[in-house]
Design brief:
InterPro entries: WYL_dom (IPR026881), XPB/Ssl2_N (IPR032830). The protein has 865 residues and is α+β, with helices and mostly antiparallel strands. Helix content is 44%, strand content 11%. The protein has a 5-stranded mixed beta sheet with strand order 18-19-17-16-20, with helices on one face. The chain has a 5-stranded antiparallel beta sheet with strand order 24-23-22-21-25.
Length: 865
């Protein structure tokens, strides 16, 4: 490198950032949004912030496997390292072509994220990155390499070092520094090292083989065996503490054929397809699941319409209430937790806030029910995709060993939206209609985001990850939840699900459309490495809204037209062969109980269900007319008799609040109630021939009389029958829970442009050369150490007025009304009335400053750019 090239090379990360263009800076700030929260004043502050421990750890944890391996290799390479030296560490003596092809991308990524800076001949890790990844006795390197010879011999006596030189056949030196350099050069020389190792006994080489891939530390006794003594004498094992020895890095690299990692992973593992289905079958299956999802959410809310389970003191559902909900929905408890959390996340249920706090439907639920089915599904699916609340953790325990309950606190996992979106994007990268092998999806996610952060990797000295980590569990939950919700069908991503993540519609070749179904799930389709999935990152809110609307548009034609009829059976059942119109489903849901669900829904009419319809304000004549209008078969006689019989008895007894009373025009009916032993618990006594008083409250009295076999009706204080409607209880307006982001949100283009402009302007103000001021050699106007310039009021005014005439830019110090000091580069336009109006290069706009707040002024140097 020439002297001119050396002077042009950046000497710090700040200088490296200073020569970047706006596109490169935008890429850095987009990948590491914490760097502009808040916006730094200049590039020096940006570089300082990029080197802080918290920011570096966050950036390292978001690297893919190969980029992280590259950073780990740089941490054990000389500082600075050349690109050729890094390639040798990554590709080894065999020069793996896949590694050589992938390494430029990894280095470019590390540079883009300001983890590495410098030219290819002088690559430098940011100091904090090296501290995190470099080997030490407390934190072994993920590469398994130990300290270098120079580091391992730092505390060794000069005499002992000279003894090692003699044992390996090197001439003695006059100082320890040259001795250590000679020993390190020997260990790094492939030919001489091969000869040195060939002299060792087999047992000694076996010891080296056990330490070569890490951990590099071993234990020895005070009187080691001969094969260990041979290693110690030659410096192939060096003592680090009493009874502890380490394999020097140079020796390990020779034994590894120059490779820093046992298994470099330059290429992401492919996502394999387990089976393939015709796209039409996938879409139809997903549409059926979507209809079932809507029905399940409506059934859940119907159960809670009049007030759902009580809210625990710590928040959330009790285990018993979750079990009851699971029984009511006929699903396992984890699936019930998913539906409950989905409805909560969509803003359809919330706490009512009463003294006896319970969960109930919100007013938003009524608005949601009025939407077309496809839009209702899109609202649920969009909520699921972006929610940080993770129902899969329900039933576990938090960091303080407290149980995690559905709808309770501490269910947010900030990684959930990214993992869900990424899993669906991987499915979108498969051939259309293909379902994935779950293990291959998990392997791909582990490569893209190594499952343990650098700190956890260092604790074990390995990058291996377990299958029970949070990201893998979220990925597995995503695959099952997407199937429940109808985002996938038969495990493959459906067209609405593809639109939901903003992925382009896949082309459908004619040959694929005519394919028959595969014989079984064992048919595997390999996916080539070059096939990268689309939509790698979650879209912005505006794009997400458009994607949700597109998903609803694609799903709508897949839904069957709602039916306006049912088939009445003689066994007091009605069969709905498909989804029903809203009005018909609402009335039938009150008049009958759902007996079974599936492709067709079976409703059963019972005395209790008919009484429920009468309580809701329907008359017997209205019920007969309703059934005759909506049945494709004649109304069976048993059903007609059931409605008439319940209606005849309904309302003969009236229950009101006295604390409670029963009145009836037929005193014989009251005599019958008093004579029934089952009514003893109600505490009834006669007040008049047609009135009974009770010790129970009206609700308990109603339930008690109905349990005996009567059909009482509640009445108001005015004597009118109270109509009980299923949707009578709603919470006050409630906002849906907001996702908990994983760090600062990604900045949009407008914010990035403004931040870069402000940083560059601040950097201009802090780095522009100034002319020396009068009166001294160093200059009165030039502030030492980058502090604010200081000049007198008369000199400041004169310099400002001169700059107005010449059009020159000035460097000023300014203190605002809050006392905050800053330095700025301005081009004065007008000076009058104690104010200067100038174009402020720092703010990139024209501003007016009071002269009494200007601490001083200095002219810019003639060669200032």
């Amino acid at each position: 490198m020439s002297t001119e090239e050396k002077s042009a090379a950046p000497r710090s990360l700040a200088e490296a950032l200073r020569v970047r263009d706006d596109v490169s800076l935008a890429a850095l700030l987009r990948s590491r949004p914490d760097l502009i929260t808040p916006v730094p004043t200049d590039l020096t502050q940006l570089a300082t912030r990029a080197g802080t421990r918290a920011s570096v750890v966050r950036a390292l944890e978001r690297l893919d496997r190969f980029a992280l391996q590259t950073a780990e290799a740089l941490a054990v390479a000389p500082d600075p390292a050349s690109y050729g030296g890094l390639l040798a560490l990554m590709a080894g003596d065999e020069e793996d072509p896949a590694v050589a092809a992938a390494l430029p991308r990894a280095v470019a990524l590390l540079r883009e994220q300001a983890l590495v800076w410098g030219a290819d001949d002088r690559l430098r890790l940011v100091r904090t990155v090296r501290e995190l990844l470099a080997p030490s006795p407390q934190h072994p390197s993920p590469t398994g390499l130990g300290p270098s010879v120079r580091e391992a011999t730092a505390g060794m006596s000069p005499g002992r070092i000279q003894e090692i030189l003699g044992a390996v056949g090197l001439p003695s030196t006059h100082d320890s520094v040259s001795a250590v350099s000679a020993l390190g050069a020997l260990f790094a020389d492939r030919r001489r090292m091969a000869g040195l190792l060939a002299e060792l006994p087999e047992e000694s080489r076996e010891v080296l083989d056990r330490l070569v891939w890490g951990p590099p530390y071993g234990q020895v006794t005070h009187d080691p065996a001969a094969h260990l003594r041979a290693l110690l004498d030659r410096g192939l094992l060096l003592p680090t503490a009493p009874g502890t020895v380490v394999l020097p890095r140079e020796v390990a690299l020779h034994l590894r054929a120059g490779r820093a990692h046992r298994t470099p992973e330059p290429v992401p593992p492919p996502v394999e397809a387990a089976a393939t289905h015709r796209p039409q079958v996938v879409d139809a299956t997903a549409a059926g699941q979507a209809l079932a999802a809507l029905a399940t959410v409506e059934e859940l809310l119907k159960e809670w319409d009049e007030g759902g389970p009580a809210v625990l003191r710590a928040g959330g559902l009790s285990v018993r209430d979750l079990k009851r909900t699971a029984v009511a929905l006929d699903v396992p408890e984890p699936v019930a937790a998913f539906w409950v959390e989905l409805a909560y996340g969509a803003g359809l249920i919330a706490s009512d806030g009463e003294a006896d706090e319970r969960y109930a439907a919100t007013p938003a639920y009524d608005e949601w029910r009025e939407l077309p089915p496809a839009e209702r599904w899109a609202h649920l699916a969009g909520t699921w995709l972006t929610a940080t609340r993770t129902p899969g953790v329900v039933g576990g325990r938090d960091a303080k060993d407290r149980p995690l309950s559905a709808l309770g606190p501490n269910l947010d996992r900030s990684a959930a939206p990214e993992v869900r979106h990424r899993v669906l994007a991987l499915l979108a990268g498969l051939p259309e209609g293909a379902s994935p092998v779950e293990a291959s999806v998990l392997a791909r996610l582990r490569w893209e985001r190594p499952l343990r952060g650098p700190q956890q990797q260092r604790e074990t000295g390995t990058g291996e990850a377990r299958d029970d980590d949070l990201r893998s569990r979220i990925a597995r939950w995503t695959l099952s939840e997407a199937e429940l919700l109808g985002v996938t069908g038969r495990g493959a991503l459906a067209a609405p699900g593809r639109a939901l993540i903003g992925a382009p519609e896949a082309p459908r070749p004619a040959a694929l459309a005519q394919e028959s179904e595969p014989e079984g799930p064992g048919d595997k389709l390999p996916v080539h490495h070059h096939r990268m999935p689309p939509a790698a990152t979650p879209p912005a809110p505006a794009e997400r809204a458009a994607a949700t609307a597109t998903a609803a548009r694609l799903l709508a034609p897949l839904f069957p037209e709602p039916l306006d009829h049912v088939l009445l059976q003689a066994d007091l059942t009605a069969v709905a062969p498909g989804p029903l119109e809203r009005e018909l489903a609402d009335v039938l849901g009150v008049l009958a109980d759902v007996e079974s669900k599936g492709g067709a829904t079976v409703y059963r009419f019972t005395p209790g269900s008919v009484r429920r319809a009468l309580d809701a304000g329907r008359s017997a004549a209205e019920l007969h007319a309703f059934l005759a209008r909506h049945s494709r078969t004649p109304v069976p006689q048993p059903l007609t008799y059931l409605i008439d019989d319940v209606a005849r008895r309904h309302g003969r007894l009236r229950v009101g609040a006295a604390s409670a009373y029963v009145r009836c025009d037929d005193d014989a009916t009251l005599d019958e109630i008093l004579a029934d032993k089952r009514a003893a618990a109600l505490g009834l006594r006669r007040l008049a021939p047609t009135v009974l008083a009770a010790q129970a409250d009206p609700a308990a009295l109603l339930e008690g009389l109905r349990a005996i076999g009567f059909a009482p009706a509640a009445e108001s204080a005015a004597g009118d029958v109270l109509i009980a409607r299923a949707d009578s209880h709603r919470t006050p307006p409630r906002a849906a829970p907001e996702p908990v982001p994983d760090g600062p949100p990604a900045p949009d283009d407008t914010l990035l442009a403004a931040a870069i402009r402000a940083v560059r302007a601040g950097d201009l103000a802090s780095t522009t050369p100034r002319k020396p001021g009068p009166g001294s050699g160093e200059g009165d106007g030039e502030a030492p150490g980058g502090s604010l310039p200081r000049t007198g009021a008369a000199e400041t005014l004169a310099t400002m007025q001169a700059a107005v005439l010449t059009g020159e830019a000035l460097w000023i110090g300014y203190v605002n009304a809050e006392g905050a000091a800053s330095q700025r580069v301005i081009a004065p336009i007008r000076v009058e009335g104690g104010f200067v109006t100038a174009y402020d290069h720092t703010a990139d706009e024209v501003r007016t400053y009071p002269l009494h707040r200007v601490t001083g002024v200095a002219e810019l140097a003639d060669d200032a750019g």
